[in-house]
TrEMBL record:
GO cellular component labels: cytosol
Catalytic activity: D-mannitol 1-phosphate + NAD(+) = beta-D-fructose 6-phosphate + NADH + H(+)
Summary of subunit composition and partner proteins: Monomer.
Organism: Penicillium cataractarum
Name used for this protein in its record: Mannitol-1-phosphate 5-dehydrogenase
GO terms of molecular function: mannitol-1-phosphate 5-dehydrogenase activity
Domain Mannitol dehydrogenase N-terminal: 3-189
Length: 395
């Protein structure tokens, strides 16, 4: 029998990144989603196209050999597919992991195949597979936990590829950048060995890769989005074309680079080259990526281990400079009441209903005794005061 991958989330990264590389590696991909339109399209087509766009032109790949199941309406089918699969991946968003865990737990529990299932969460978050595993284990009978390792192995990953929102008439087809990076820890697979997926870079220690990625790509991208929206820019490319915003992004990246070089002993020259690649990537005018997509979910992005507070906290602990990152935090706090973004409404409510220190704790999870805490409280206070004066954040 051929290899089978179950992939949760038939969205942009699901179709344009994970499924592409699973398909190339020879897997049949079974997409699981909760959106009727995506499931229907996947069920009613035999192929879709992934087009890489860059100044060098366009390259198109055709993805075939997939099926799709709606987990909202056909949960038992999903459980059975998981029980005979080789790998489970997901790209649903870090906040959704808890919702997909129960069905994965049921599928793992009834497995009787000799090889354990490989589970790899593909989200923009540190330790996303660990988070998913925690939810799966909490939906597994305690007496079954001891033997879980015979049925499933869990590996964290870092994924990087810019997949903007797609044009409304594009159906399943996805336009993406050429660049990609998929790094996964290999230790958890032990003697069983990791899955054979050529696109994956297997490493012993993931932390340097995921921190470098999150604190360079995502920090700079989100900084451009929040400053860009504040300045009335529509796309990230437009924001990066603005010399002031470009300068701010560079200043922020100097701070995160100093952490990455100091903590992970990455050579300064290597980090500088990485930074230049990322600035070129996020400035790509062919991607038409909106500031709202890249800024989406500001509450998650202001989190303790996330792209701003994560590096700023570590810099503060080391007595190093972090004030440009605070500028990004300030702009993120102004991403309030944005259309179709529930977290931007939640952000506005939290800022409205709480004193600065309480709002800081609630949003960032920073400990009140942390060396970064008072600096963030000041920024929160500043944004709240503007709203009190004008009825809304300055924008
Ligand atoms: N778009 C990008 O450039 C990148 C995104 N990522 C990460 O990949 C993840 C997905 O992002 P996108 O693909 O851009 O988002 P998306 O919104 O295009 O796709 C998410 C998909 O998950 C589905 N979904 C939601 N709840 C579900 C559930 N309970 N069960 C099954 N499916 C469910 C949605 O219907 C949607 O199709 C996020 O964690 C994001 O941070 C990482 C790198 C790049
Ligand atoms: O939901 P998030 O964390 O913004 O994830 C999507 C982000 O990931 C990236 O693709 C980088 O890998 C950004 O382009 C994009 O904004």
């Amino acid at each position: 029998m051929g290899m089978k991958a179950i992939h949760f989330g038939g969205g942009n990264i699901g179709r344009g990144f994970v499924a592409e590389f699973l398909h190339t590696a020879g897997y049949e991909v079974v997409f699981i989603d909760v959106m009727d339109n995506i499931i229907n399209e996947l069920q009613n087509t035999k192929s879709y196209q992934v087009t890489e766009v860059s100044e060098a032109g366009e390259t198109t790949k055709t993805i075939t050999n997939y099926r799709a199941i709606n987990s909202k309406t056909h949960e038992q089918d999903v459980v059975e597919e998981i029980s005979t699969a080789d790998i489970v991946t997901c790209a649903v968003g870090p906040n959704i992991l808890k919702f997909i865990a129960p069905v994965i737990a049921k599928g793992i529990d009834i497995r009787s195949t000799p090889k354990p299932l490989a589970v790899i969460a593909c989200e923009n978050a540190i330790g996303a597979t660990d988070t998913l595993r925690g939810h799966i284990e909490s939906h597994t009978d305690s007496e079954r936990l001891e033997t879980m390792g015979e049925r499933a192995q869990y590996a964290n990953s870092a994924i990087d590829r810019i997949v903007p929102a797609q044009a409304p008439n594009s159906g399943l087809n996805v336009r993406i950048e050429k660049f990609y990076e998929w790094v996964v820890e290999k230790g958890p697979f032990g003697n069983v060995g990791h899955p054979n997926i050529p696109a994956i870079h297997w490493v012993d220690h993931l932390e340097p890769y995921i921190e470098r990625k999150l604190f360079t790509v995502n920090t700079s991208h989100a900084t451009a989005a929040y400053y860009g929206r504040y300045a009335g820019k529509k796309t990230i490319a437009e924001a990066m074309h603005d010399s002031y915003i470009r300068g701010v992004v560079r200043d922020v990246l100097k701070e995160t680079a100093s952490l990455i070089i100091d903590k992970h002993e990455i050579e300064a020259q290597e980090q500088q080259e990485y930074v230049e690649t990322i600035i070129a990537r996020i400035s790509n005018p062919y991607l038409e990526d909106s500031v709202e997509r890249v800024g989406r979910a500001p509450v998650r992005k202001l989190g303790r281990k996330e792209r701003f507070i994560g590096p700023a906290a570590q810099l503060a602990e080391r007595g190093m400079k972090y004030d440009s990152l605070l500028g990004s935090v300030e702009m993120a706090l102004r991403f309030q009441n944005v259309k179709d973004d529930a977290e931007s409404v939640e952000l506005a409510t939290i800022l409205k209903e709480n004193a600065p220190a309480d709002a800081t704790v609630q949003l960032t999870g920073l400990e009140r005794t942390h060396p970064l805490f008072s600096a963030v409280v000041k920024v929160v206070d500043q944004v709240q005061s503007e709203a009190k004066e004008t009825g809304q954040p300055r924008i």
